Amino acid sequence: MVNTLGLAIGLGAALTFVVLHFAKGASNPAPEDIAADVLEQRAATVPETDFPEPYNRSIGGGGGAGAVAGGAEGELEDSEEEDEGFDPDDIADDEVEYYEIEFVNEGETIEVANNETLLDAGEDEGWDLPYACRQGQCVSCGGRVASGEDASEYIRHSNNESLGDSEIEEGYMLTCTAHPTAEFSLETNETP
Ligand code: FES
Questions:
Q1: d(Cα 87, Cα 115) in Å, to the nearest integer?
Q2: Whether this model's pTM surpasses 0.85
Q3: Least CB-packed of 54, 57, 100, 135 within 10 Å?
Q4: Per-residue pLDDT, 62
Q5: In the CATH scheme, what architecture does the domain 97-188 have?
Q6: From the CA of 176, how far away is ligand 1's center (Å)?
């Protein structure tokens, strides 16, 4: 009798515990995922940019990218100013001038236009002249005013990233980017 009463009390307590357990769980639903709301709120604080999607309104990215782009643009403008100078393509057809250039080592004198390079003109004659980059970035095509006078009196470079002022004053030039501005005698295959 005592055992039956104890068993009944025990079962009642267990049942009560189970009911309370589920009742508590049901009254506390899992929190909603607020990640999307947070992202939207943060995105709203980022100013609009001119960048197309997906960068537009990107969190922390649009403004930074804009700043970098602005800086790069500024640097480009500076370098363009520095490089501003002689472009042979800017010479109009009716402004093209020709100069008699003596190629000493080749033993001939030819006419070279001021919108063509000494290297191109020599190659047109079939001469095997030295070169590598053809962009003024090495000295493989080096030549020299035979008299040793300042090369800037006779040519101008469309691009020179190799020779210093003193070397040019000694008569050296890069024939791949050198355009004649006067008649002179040229020694090819000459480097400082
Ligand atoms: S070939 Fe390189 S500077 Fe002329």
A1: 9
A2: no
A3: 54
A4: 43
A5: Roll (3.10)
A6: 6
